[in-house]
Amino acid sequence: MVDPYSPAPAPRSRASAPLSLSAPARPRRPRCLETGRGVLMAKFVLAGRADCPYYAKAELLADYLQKNLPDFRIHKITQHPHVWEEWLEHLCEKNKWSHTTSPIIWRELLDRGGKGMLLGGYNEFLEHAQLYYSVTSSMTTELMKMIAQENLETHVEKELEGESLKGLLSPLQVWITSASAPACYNLIPILTSGEVFGTQTELSIVLFDSKDAEEKLHILASETHDLVSPFLRSISVCTRVQEAFRQAHVVIVLDDSTDKEVYALEECIRSRVPLCRLYGYLIEKNAHDSVRVIVGGKTFVNLKTVLLMRYAPSIAHNIVAVALGVEGQARAALARKLRTTPASIKDVIIWGNISGNNYVDLRKAKVYRYESAIWGPPYFSRPILSLIFDSEWVNGEFVTTLRKLTATGQQLRGMLTAHSIATTLKYWYHGSPPGEIVSLGVLSEGQFGVPEGIVFSMPVKFENGTWKVLTDLKDVEISEKVMTRMTSDLIQEKLVALGDLINFQPYQSVSQGCHNKLPQTRGLETTEIHSLVLLEPRRPKPRCRQGCAPSEGSGTIPSLPLLAAKLGFLGWWLLHSSLCRCLPSVCLCVSISLSPYKDTSHCI
Questions:
Q1: E strand or H helix at 399
Q2: How many CB atoms are located within 10 Å of the residue 591 CB?
Q3: Residue 181 has what DSSP assignment?
Q4: Nearest CA-CA partner of 443 in 339, 275, 312
Q5: Are 126 and 137 a contacting pair, CB within 8 Å?
Q6: What is the 3-state secondary structure (H, E, C) of 67-124?
Q7: Cα 58 to Cα 66: distance, rounded to the nearest angstrom
Q8: What is the chain's Cα-based Rg?
Q9: Where is the Lactate/malate dehydrogenase C-terminal domain (predicted)?
Q10: How many CB atoms lie within 10 A of CB 582?
């Protein structure tokens, strides 16, 4: 396409052309026309899909012309392949152009206020360069594809850098509800440390609570300023409901404090609905489209999460419940038993109701850097159930400890609640450790046989700014009886809250080591929701090859089970060999429980 606004060409000094370009000994350039307003100059704009080979070829040609012609200016625009078509359609509609391929090239006449005139695509630009500047391109297809791939990688890197700079220019809006709660006091220093959202992101924190708590909020805000955090742009207080969650990127929902007395469990459940309905409406109305809502605390965590999803349906996938507090308590109990650190224990799964009937699953749990006869590199791990020989402790003291903590809410005081919320947010934004299982309360879609429509804690992983349920895990099947125990209360809580069920009937468990009585309470602070920490019952003890029952009959040595447990497999084998040589006629059968799911009988 011939441009009528281009003046006649004129010779210029010799310039060397790149290897893939063909140019005359003296490249020509157009003369600049002198007008009453000055020099007439045109700027070319080259736009294309970041991975387009023809854009790469046109880009190299334009760079050569700009380098060798002082009056030639080029401005380049790349778009990600996912948004290219939409961007091109909007551009053509705005300028009343007709173009459907990549690249697109137009001229902006500087003396006319930058008015654009479409030149065309790659072929038209190549024809224009050859006609007016006697320059053409002979780039090979392989080189075109290679440069196109480099362009795409560069474009993605620039987008990430832009997001980081955008975070500095426009801080991340973090809203904390019930900000007068003790958990908020512990949460703010973690959020402003730069470990949760990254050191390239500044925060603007808003403390939201009732008018009665305004004085406490101002004191907390003043103390937060004293932290002098380089990642905190501002902190403010909000007590006006109409302004709640305005442009919020993150909403942290803590336990709401109330002085209202409730005399029945049903009344306590229904009291959650008005506030969740209000929060859901305001988040839908005022918050950012990609807002992330995280629910933490110690009372009705699953119920509040499912109610928020109901009243804010457009962001339901971005509403989750924190289960890391219960998981952390279980890991700490196991670490005390094994005399190691809680951080070395991984992949403990919490199923079910985070603040009620839940199932602590140790079948995938592993311990790293454990001091024993078997050592390995840092990534070497051993299954927890192969190290805890005392199955009575797992089904007894371990269950009782977690049940008592969940019943009183002591395992989710301010510090643990804050750390659990901050860790979940960190994983959400930056991804969870590779290969590690994380427990999270999400809306069930029927995974693992869980009824749809309830919020249920299950194993997930975080990656690329979102979470994914680990449905491909093996050997994590849950029996129908156990599933009923966990889902019964969740389903009833939802039905009672929505008015579809009048009376709440707690699931009555008769399993050993389980307690599931939900008493009617007077006052929110004394509400008890007992934990149901379930483990598979031990199987009947096997008999030895000679038919005798373990640890029975004459010739048994009562101290051998304890001794074998301390010695481990290697020591037990050596003891077995010695006794067989010294006492060949004596049959001593000892049962050593390697896990709460399996007993192993050794005949000596």
A1: helix 399-408
A2: 19
A3: S
A4: 312
A5: yes
A6: HHCCCCEEEEEEECCCCHHHHHHHHHHHHCCCCCCCCEEEEEEHHHCCEEEEEECHHH
A7: 12
A8: 34
A9: 330-490
A10: 8
Strand, helix or coil at 572? Answer: helix
The DSSP result for 520-532, as a single string, is: --SSGGG------
Q: Does the predicted model carry a pTM greater than 0.85?
A: no
What residue has token string 């224990």?
345
Q: In this structure, are residues 144 and 56 in contact, taking their beta carbons and an 8 Å threshold?
A: yes
The pLDDT of residue 46 is: 92
The yes-or-no verdict on residue 588 having pLDDT over 60 is no
**Side-chain half-sphere exposure of 37, counting CA atoms within 13 A:** 6
DSSP assignments along 375-390, one per residue: ---TT-EEEGGGT---
- The residues with which 206 forms a beta bridge, in sequence order, are 175, 236
Residue type, 454: I
> HSE-up of 127 (CA within 13 Å, CB side)?
10
Strands, E assignment, 381-476? 381-383, 438-443, 455-463, 466-469
pLDDT tens profile 403-433: 777 655 554 567 899 999 999 999 999 999 9
Query: Is the backbone peptide bond immediately before 103 cis, with ω within 30 degrees of 0?
Result: yes
Q: Do the Cβ atoms of 289 and 545 come closer than 8 Å?
A: no
What CA–CA distance (Å, rounded) separates 162 from 363? Answer: 44
- Tell me the per-residue pLDDT of 274-322, one tens digit each, with 9 for 90 and over: 999 999 999 999 999 999 999 998 889 999 999 999 999 999 999 999 9
Q: Which residues make Cβ contacts (< 8 Å) with residue 163, sequence separation at least 6? A: none
Encoded amino acid at 199, one letter = T
Contact, 74 vs 44, CB < 8 A?
yes
What confidence category does residue 520 fall into, taking pLDDT thresholds of 50, 70 and 90?
very low
Confidence of residue 231 (pLDDT cuts 50, 70, 90): very high
Six token digits for residue 540: 């009947």
The residue type of 532 is L
The tokens for 307 are 């109610």
Residues 132, 164 contacting (CB under 8 angstroms)? no
Helices 399-408, 324-338: inter-axial angle, 10-degree rounding = 140
